Amino acid sequence: MTPVMKFKKKFYFIVASYFRFFANFAFRRWHPRVIAITGSVGKTTMLNLVECTLGDKAHYSHDANSAYGIAFDMVNLRGVTGSKLRWFYLFLAVPIKSLFYKHKEEFYVVEIDGERPHEAEFLASWLRPEVTLWVSLGLSHACQFEQQVKDGLFSSLDKAITHEFAMLPQYTQKLVIIDGEVDLMNRALDSIKQKNLTKATVIKCSKDAVKTYKVEPNHTSFILQGTADGVSHEYEFNRPMSKDIAIQLTMLETLVNYLEVMPRYDFSNLKLAPGRNSYFDGKNGLKIIDSSYNAHLISVKSILEMYKAMHVPHKWLIIGDIVDQGSIEGQEHAKLADEIIKVKPEQVILIGRRTKKYTAPILK
Q1: Which one is predicted more confidently, 339 or 269?
Q2: Is the pLDDT of residue 3 over 90?
């Protein structure tokens, strides 16, 4: 770790507390109903699904999911995207804007990352969301949690990361919605309830609601059995979507029922950030699907399942590195190679700095 990185790590929460202190004035004046979205992967997609449903009733923390970003978003400022000198501007601008700025929407839909130890707790204890949607759990940013395991605070990376995300449900006021098929997530919530660490109702969603799933390079449709009325509903997208998105659609329906707002089933206008299930027409009839953003074993497995379900004559894969995995990077790449073999691709193109070391066996 470089001296600059060590400095950032040591003073991260000290500086973040400065911005939170002032941004809290704007937050208290606003006093929105907070809907928090967290998890290892799929947070931004979930946020966009909620945005399509709630529309202008809510303000959304686009491009802001950290302790710094959310504080800046609270006073309608963006973070450091260019010169580092912008930090000096932000140190002055946040206190000034916090004195008069206020968002006006009823809801604040906020994406919360668990990138480093204590960050989810830092934000959860501040925002105290009315609703939390915990969409996924895996070894995201595992390298950040290795020291906790080395120090004996947790017996494994899985438990360290689970603990970090579980801080949000502990501070949630009314409703926690989780993926009921994830064992670690289930155990964490059961433990929280048994210890009376939250008064929120916990609803566990499942992909069992999926009746049909059809995916093409430029279209996807789901038929899901309704969680409240038992009636089947068809959801449509104008882009390829993995089957795992069904859990988020089920969570969305649960949220809509709780908020008593009109549901939405046509997501043709869903906007996702670059690198997330983006479809492009190439030359000579080539169809290109870009899902390269934030590669993680969970998300890559989800895309591979979508790839397998897609009925087209020829299918190629372009695979890069899984990053931020620390000491487990090798074994995660080995697992990725096994998953690629299962879908039997016609051709695999490997790119990245570690492919020679970790994924060469799939070329044999």
Answers
A1: 269
A2: no
- For 98-148, the pLDDT digits (tens) are 999 999 999 999 999 877 889 999 999 999 999 999 999 887 777 778 888
**Residue 149: band (very low, low, confident or very high) from pLDDT cuts 50, 70, 90:** confident
The partner residues of 38 in beta bridges, in order of sequence, read: 112, 134
pLDDT category, 362, cuts 50, 70, 90?
Answer: very low
Task: Provide CB contacts within 8 A for 83, sequence distance 6+.
Answer: none
pLDDT per residue over 248-283, tens digit each?
A: 999 999 999 999 999 999 998 888 777 777 777 788
353 vs 194, which has greater pLDDT? 194
Taking the alpha carbons at both ends of the chain, their separation in whole angstroms is 36
Assign 3-class secondary structure to the chain. CCHHHHHHHHHHHHHHHHHHHHHHHHHHHHCCEEEEEECCCCHHHHHHHHHHHHHHHEEECCCCCCHHHHHHHHCCCCCCCCCCCHHHHHHHHHHHHHCCCCCCCCEEEEEECCCCCCHHHHHHHHHCCCEEEECCCCCCCHHHHHHHHHCCCCCCHHHHHHHHHHHHHHHCCCEEEEECCCHHHHHHHHHHHHCCCCCCEEEEECHHHEEEEEEECCEEEEEEECCCCCCEEEEEECCCCCCCHHHHHHHHHHHHHHHCCCCCCEECCCCCCCCCCEEEECHHHCEEEECCCCCCHHHHHHHHHHHHHCCCCCCEEEECCCCCCHHHHHHHHHHHHHHHHHCCCCEEEECCCCHHHHCHHHHC
